[in-house]
Amino acid sequence: MENSFIHQLFKPKLENPIFVEGLLGFGNVGKIVSQLLIRFCEARLFAEYYSPFFPDYVSVNDDGICRPPHYKLYVSSSEKKLSAIILTGDSQAPLDNVEAHYEISEEVLDFVQKLGCRFVVTIGGVPVSTDRNDVYVAATSKSLATDVMEKGAIIYSKGRIMGATGLLLGLAKMRGLSGFCLLGATSGSGTDKDAGSAVFQMLLKALGQEDKQRS
Questions:
Q1: Average pLDDT, the chain
Q2: Looking at the DSSP assignment, which residues form a beta bridge with residue 182?
Q3: CA distances from residue 127 to 64, 185, 189 in whole angstroms, order as listed
Q4: 70 within some domain
Q5: What three-state secondary structure class fits 213?
Q6: Is residue 214 part of a domain?
Q7: I want to staple 209 with a disulfide (CB 3.0 to 4.6 A). Which of 5, 18, 153, 204 is the partner?
Q8: Do the domain assignments include residue 171?
Q9: What is the domain-level CATH number for residue 182?
Q10: pTM for this model (two decimals)
């Protein structure tokens, strides 16, 4: 494989979808939230992104079938719930390969923009020393950050957001897109389901979907 590519299973019909990223990272918060959102939206897998920048191994399932690491993109076009493209996966490019992170993020944004996405949400974890399930927010504008803060999040200030979670949001802003990042406070050791649950609930509040969860 010389170049990254997207294998699209079908072409979705969408109206003003948002793009939500949730990958592995601190506490695997992003991955937990993306899986919860996929179930909440009853989203379907519609595309897979492969890249030579991903690690050099394959994953093998219970049936002995192997596959290389890749991103999965799910789509929800439900009128009752959220119109969204949800990205998740089991790996990222190595943190020290800056060029790879930029190239992958740009290609993913190119793809979702062509499908009509103008709003980006990224999800991750932030290591803390306390055991509180705080949720932090950073955004492409002060007004957006304030809106989410008023729903219960804490402004994430004077920090860095590593990997795709930070870069996708930063590059989206440069393209004139809007969005925010939610970070769940976590010890960073192992999968933190409590942090994932807290961020998921905040995500629903921020997107005005909290009432629909109960329906």
A1: 91
A2: 123, 137
A3: 35, 6, 9
A4: yes
A5: helix
A6: no
A7: 204
A8: yes
A9: 3.40.50.10900
A10: 0.93
- pLDDT tens, residue by residue, 19-60: 999 999 899 999 999 999 999 999 999 999 999 998 888 889
Our CA angle for 89, 110, 178, nearest 5°, is 90
Residue 56 main-chain phi, psi, to 5 deg: -95, 70
How many domains, in total, are found in the chain?
1
Domain with 16 in it: 5-208
Contact status, residue 163 vs residue 171, Cβ threshold 8 Å: no
Q: Are 20 and 34 in contact (CB under 8 A)?
A: yes
| pLDDT (tens digit per residue) in 181-194 | 999 999 877 889 99
Q: Which two tokens stand for residue 59?
A: 């994953």
Which amino acid would we find at residue 35?
A: Q
Provide the residue count of the chain: 215
Alpha helices in 42-119 (DSSP H): 98-114
CA distance linking residue 30 with residue 22, whole number of Å? 4
**Separation CA 5–CA 209 (nearest Å):** 33
Between CA 189 and CA 110, with CA 58 as vertex, the angle to 5 degrees is 85
CA distance 199 to 8: 29
Bridge partner list, 73: 47, 87
Q: Examine residue 213 and state whether it is found in any structural domain, yes or no.
A: no
Round to whole Å and give the CA distance between 141 and 83: 22
